[in-house]
Amino acid sequence: MPRASRLAQEAVLAALRAEGVQGAVNVLLTDDREVKRLNGLHRSKNKPTNVLSFPAEMPGFLGDIALALGVVRREARAAGKPLHAHLAHLVVHGALHLVGHDHLQAGEARRMEQAEARIMRRLALPNPWRGVF
C-alpha cells in the first residue's frame, strides 16, 4: 500500500491535534496473522481485526496502534471505500482510543464517530459515517 506510513502519520497527528493532546504513538502496519496473534494475546480473540490500540501509561508516550492490512483492504473493497480513506479512518479511530475515547455506550460511540468525521474532514477525506445513519 503506497504512502501507508505517511498517511498513518498524518492521521495520528490530525487526531492528536483535534483532541489537543501531544505525545508519541507507534503505528504498526502489518499482516492479518500478526494482528490475529496480538488480538489473541491481549483480547483472547482468535481472529484478526482491523485495528488494535494499546494505551500506554508513560509520560509523553500515548501508546501503540496495530492495523491488519489484509483486513483493511477487504473491508474497504466490501464497503466500496477508497483504501487510503479507510486506512486513515482506522488510524484516527485507534488514536482516539489512545486519548480516552470509547464506543461501548451509545453516547460515547456517537461522540467518537463525530470526532472521527471532523478529523477526516481536516484530512480532506470522506466522512466514514456518511450514509450509515
What key phrases describe this protein's structure?
alpha+beta, Collagenase (Catalytic Domain), 5 helices, 133 residues, three-stranded mixed β-sheet
Characterise this structure.
α1 crosses α4, α3 crosses α4 and α4 packs across α5. The mean pLDDT is 93. The protein has a single domain, classed as 3-Layer(aba) Sandwich (Collagenase (Catalytic Domain)). The termini are far apart. With 133 residues, the protein is an alpha+beta fold. Its main location: cytoplasm. Belongs to the endoribonuclease YbeY family. This is Endoribonuclease YbeY. It is found in: Cytoplasm.
Layout: helices, strands, pairs:
Elements: H1 4-19, E1 24-30, H2 32-43, E2 51-58, E3 61-68, H3 69-79, H4 83-98, H5 106-122
Parallel strand pairs: 1-3
Antiparallel strand pairs: 2-3
Helix pairs in contact: 1-4, 1-5, 3-4, 4-5
